[in-house]
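Researcher: Let's do a round of design. I'm pasting the structure tokens now; please hold your answer until I've finished.
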């Protein structure tokens, strides 16, 4: 199973560029699409193994190992830094190591979760994957980072929200296991964006109003007119570039995109629940990981159908807020208002 941070519609646009200035980027995007397609298809038939081979006792610290693929596509590569080891000369290795630690810290310190599987799964990563590889992904077992093409994309270890996003695909894999198609697939992507943003905010100690709410901040080079891959605060505004075009994410359900591409537009329509989360967090204020984040975490670890739609997920977040904070709480009001703000009803029982 593979979840890449760069959506296929963006890679497709880059791959079709017919301009000498972007020749390297076009070839890199073509290679990324060829590489990613078999694993995107595999996601639809993924089933979770319960072999228990990776079970470990609870620990307050992660068990990390970062390997170097040395521009090959052979995993895992040579181990470059293990848990407790000193920083090395390779910046990508250190960024990956620190990002794994920051993600572990959010889940452990805030939600009491022992690694992404809840049972002490070692956190492994591989950097320098492929030649000019334009993506980063979770393959069901480890994080894998490309170096980018240097024209449009910089190194993928440079964005903490990307690392948190991809590892959260692992959390979802072990909890709600949301089907990667249509609305449930968009929710799968959105949950990763939510906790990717929270990993970054928690690491930086940022309040709701100080956070950027950007996913992939720092991924684009200075040749791109844009700040990130996605904006949770204002979907559709992350970039507006002559080459890449305008960020196509919708910000409300009225503009939901029906398409057969990208498993039913999972990277596009995730903007709708992303904005709902931001609205909830903004209304509650403070630090998002302590308020809205707890509600979303309770939701994905509670009873939830893998094929749940937006309305069903919204109802589940209301139920989670009521259970944790009380039916008449400000948190419940905020959750209802957040979903109403993107045109999704939150009444009734969750449905899948």
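Researcher: That's everything. Go ahead.
Model: Designed sequence:
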């Amino acid at each position: 199973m593979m979840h890449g941070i760069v959506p296929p519609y963006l890679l497709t646009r880059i791959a079709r560029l017919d301009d000498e200035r972007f020749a390297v980027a076009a070839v890199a995007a073509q290679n990324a699409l060829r590489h990613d397609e078999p694993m995107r298809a595999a996601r639809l038939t993924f089933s979770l193994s319960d072999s228990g081979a990776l079970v470990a006792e609870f620990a307050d610290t992660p068990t990390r190992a970062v390997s170097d693929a040395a521009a090959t596509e052979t995993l895992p590569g040579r181990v470059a830094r293990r848990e407790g080891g000193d920083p090395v000369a390779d910046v990508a290795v250190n960024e990956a190591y620190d990002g794994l630690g920051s993600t572990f810290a959010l889940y452990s310190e805030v939600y009491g979760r022992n690694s992404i599987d809840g049972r002490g799964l070692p956190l492994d990563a591989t950097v320098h994957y492929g030649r000019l590889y334009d993506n980063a992904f979770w393959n069901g077992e480890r994080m894998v980072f490309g170096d980018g093409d240097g024209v449009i994309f910089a190194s993928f270890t440079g964005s903490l929200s990307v690392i948190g996003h991809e590892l959260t695909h692992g959390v979802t894999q072990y909890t709600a296991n949301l089907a990667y198609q249509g609305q449930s697939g968009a929710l799968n992507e959105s949950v990763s964006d939510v906790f990717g943003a929270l990993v970054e905010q928690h690491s930086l100690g940022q309040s709701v109003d100080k956070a950027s709410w950007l996913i992939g901040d720092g991924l684009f080079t200075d040749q791109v007119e844009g700040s990130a891959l996605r904006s949770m605060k204002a979907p559709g505004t992350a970039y507006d570039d002559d080459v890449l075009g305008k960020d196509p994410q919708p910000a409300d359900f009225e503009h939901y995109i029906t398409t057969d591409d990208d498993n039913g537009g999972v990277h596009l329509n995730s903007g709708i629940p992303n904005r709902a989360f931001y609205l909830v967090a903004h209304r509650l204020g403070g630090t998002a990981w302590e308020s809205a984040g707890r509600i979303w975490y309770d939701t994905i670890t509670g009873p939830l159908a893998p094929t749940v739609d937006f309305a069903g997920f919204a109802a589940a977040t209301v139920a989670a807020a009521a259970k944790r904070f009380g039916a008449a709480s400000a948190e419940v009001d905020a959750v209802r208002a957040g979903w109403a703000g993107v045109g999704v009803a939150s009444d009734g029982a969750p449905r899948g």
